[in-house]
Here is the input.
Amino acid sequence: MKLAYFPGCKIDFYLKDYGISFKSIMKKLSVELVELPFNCCGYPARNTDYEVCMFSSLRNLALARKYKLDIITPCMCCYGQLQYASLQWKQLGRQIENSAKKQTSELKQKFNDLLAQENLFWDGKTEIKHLLTFLYNDIGILNLKKKIKNRLPEKKVVTQYGCHALRPFTVTGFDNPHAPQIFEELINITGLKSVEWSKNTECCGNPILENSKTLSLKILNSKLDAAIKAKADYICTACTHCQMQYNELSFQKECKKHNITPTLFTQILDNAL
Here is the structure.
């Protein structure tokens, strides 16, 4: 199996362990990752410039399509943004077909013209996969379980999904946004034990860290309180931004006091494989 690898902007600079362990897992599952000259997913521009946001995503999708590859990413934010752009693009097409609005037609033509400058075109057929959905749906939970060679000690784990995977469900189609189970099932096949906690679907606070650090850290510390109540040994993430938030120095020190370790799911699964 061959897939286009979309690490996003943060992993190579701030979270190299995520990229290393992700690639190791893919190699063990006989998945060939193709690295293309992708740009930013476009999410940072979503609230400031719709066209820049959309074109950033469309160029990535068209580039993968040029090589007849679907995209896989370990970044929840990139996953959500690429799914958003894909849906928006298809809706633009329906609006043109149904109402022939001049403004909508011109916008889609503008995107096509920009793509054409690089000999690119997107027909809407590129699939976007997040690591968790790929493991659960494409590899399959039973097949993955058979590949586990090093069953891990039965430590308690709470899962941190990341907001962009679960919401809005009409865009991501990831899992039940109110009671997700994919992550928990994947944790359990490693030997570790997923336990319930009150914060698995709540934001980690990272999106507001720069503009409201006090509130961001308050949200973060509420996560630790909930993990302590759940008697967790690990807070497990599958989101670039969540892990970056959990790597905050003061939070790491507090976690150590309670023998709780924030860790990447890729590192856990890589060890088990």
User: Anything to note?
Assistant: The first strand starts at residue 2 and ends at 5. The beta strands are 2-5, 32-34, 71-73, 128-130, 156-160, 193-194, 234-237, 261-264. Residues 76-99 form the longest helix (24 residues).
